[in-house]
Amino acid sequence: MTVSAQQLHEQLATAVVELDEDLTKQLAQQAIDLGFDAWEAVEFGLVAGMDRAGKLFDEEEYFIPELLLASDAMYAGLAILRPHIPQQNTDAEKVRVVIGVIEGDTHDIGKNLVRIMLDVGGFEVIDLGRDVPPRTFVDRAKETGARIIAIASLMTTTMDGMAEVVRILEAEKIRDRFKVIVGGAPISQGFAKKIGADGYASRAPAAVQLAKRLVSEPQAA
Amino acid sequence: MSELTQKERLVRVLHKEAVDRPPVICTGGMMNAAIVEIMRKTGHTLPEAHLDADRMADLALDIHDHTGFENIGVPFCMTVEAELLGSPVDLGTLECEPKIAREIYPSLSQVDFKNVEQLAHSGRMNVVVDAAHRIAKARPDVPVIASLTGPVSTAASIVDPLTFYKELRKNPAAAHRVLEYVTNLLAAYAERVLESGASVIAIGDPSATGELLGPKLFEEYAVRYLNALADRVHAKGFPIIIHICGDVKRVKPQLASLHADALSTDAMISLPGLKAEYPHLTTMGNLSTFALQWSSPEKIATMARNLVADGIDIISPACGLSTSTHLESIRAMTDTVKATSPVTSA
């Protein structure tokens, strides 16, 4: 039975959205064996499948376990396809994001979801982990040339650390070099505004849209 | 009705009996009121009070006396259980609550099963049990609430959470084994602390929300083990309060099936709405902790008055309080509830 590239992309996307890691790996290998373009298999297969999983998550058909399993399938397929992607495709200049959970807080499920979705969305993500001091966000953003600082907090008791990141940026007069986005269960648009952040997203897929919108805005000099 | 003690009022509400007005409480644990302002005033401070029964009792009494909450709650964190099960804990500072430094097991299938009865007699469980005993003796008329971390949250504090959530779907057999294990430990702990003087158990299970798990897994894991724990508490003859974090709209039928004597929710939930849908529920909540931290005392008083007017059975903060919350703001809440005129009992 012959399969077209398009059909295989669809099967890949379906395998990801149906959380089938083994099938995703098989299909990724099949794409290589059949000589299909690996980059297209990633973009129209794996990433498309992950986008669908993200959509189902937004529609509350999928929840945390499903989104994590879909991302496992996607990354497993990616590990097979990546060595076959020509260098110029992967070297394209990506916008960098530093992301982490603020100091005092070790709940990182939400942060990990946003990291995965940003990665899928074409950003280069530098993950600082959890329990990250405000100063570290700023230092690492400067070092890596990041345009976005993404901060998560899951506890009402640690939210002030987010404001501290903004205060440090202002004190160093580098506030306009970065877009600061915040999220997490106790965070709201009102809180983001209050601390002078550039944006807030209530859910992981929305964070990607927010990041894309912010970097498309004209950058301050 | 003659003047009720704080303990009588809360216990009566939890037994669905008539009272003069709703009690205003703060359970401890995830929802504790160990604010910096009180600790600076009294000198009974964290993190020391996490480790020593006398200090824990002193701080819990300070909180009761200063805030006006009509209960005494211990402990002041959600790490007692996971620490005993092996996860290293960072006890935090005066301002910052303890946290799990690292989940000790990489996956559910690697959990090492220990003797829960022995565990329930060790570590900081002893501190909490001893503190509850001292407090109950010092204030027999005030309900002592022991706050426990829920089964799913405890399990997610000993197993790497990313793997944990995936394994709930991929490896249900291992998930049930671990949840049964932690539930047994929690029940043994609850029984000890009730024997030592606590009169109510409160459970917070923030890793087990409908938003995180979805209705199916919420039912399979959260409801099942919360109910198993609640049944053990009831078998001892005591009431249990269960707090469910986050937006509950996808799991309302499951909430209604919890064996809780009161159900507490986050600030975004309309408790009158929930009660209209499920009239058998005893509702608790849900004054925004964001408001408690940032709004004026007048605004907070209005919010508290509205909760009472809405017929909420127990008035309480909706979530964990920031340690920088002002005492004046908390007093605005507690004083307002206490000043409400008696409800005409049905």
Please explain how this structure is put together:
The complex is a heterodimer of chains A (221) and B (346). With 221 residues, chain A is of the alpha/beta class. Chain A has 2 domains: 5-88, Orthogonal Bundle (Methyltransferase, Methionine Synthase (B12-binding Domains), Chain A, domain 1), CATH 1.10.1240; 96-216, Rossmann fold (3-Layer(aba) Sandwich). Chain A is built from 10 helices and 5 strands, in the order αααααβαβαβαβαβα. Chain A has helices spanning 5-17, 21-33, 38-58, 64-81, 87-90, 109-120, 134-144, 160-171, 189-194, 204-216; strands at 96-101, 124-127, 148-152, 179-183, 199-200. Chain A has a 5-stranded parallel β-sheet with strand order 2-1-3-4-5, with helices on both faces. In chain A, helix 2 (21-33) packs parallel to helix 4 and helix 6 packs across helix 10. The radius of gyration of chain A is 19 Å and the shape is elongated. The model of chain A has no long low-confidence stretch (mean pLDDT 90). Chain B has helices at 6-14, 36-42, 53-67, 80-84, 116-119, 123-138, 151-155, 161-170, 172-195, 210-235, 252-256, 271-277, 289-294, 297-309, 327-339, and strands spanning 72-74, 89-90, 99-100, 144-149, 200-204, 240-244, 262-265, 283-287, 314-317. Chain B has a 7-stranded parallel β-sheet, with helices on both faces. The mean pLDDT of chain B is 95. With 346 residues, chain B is α/β, with parallel strands linked by helices. Chain B is built from 15 helices and 9 strands. Chain B has a single domain, classed as TIM Barrel. Helices cover 48% and strands 10% of the residues of chain B. Chain B is globular. In chain B, helix 8 (161-170) packs across helix 9 and helix 14 runs parallel beside helix 15 (327-339). Chain A binds chain B through residues 19, 60, 62-66, 68-69, 72, 103-109, 112, 131, 154-160, 185-186, 188, 191, 194, and chain B through 90, 92, 96-97, 99-101, 161-162, 165-166, 168-170, 206, 211-214, 217, 245-246, 250, 289-290, 293-294, 319-324.
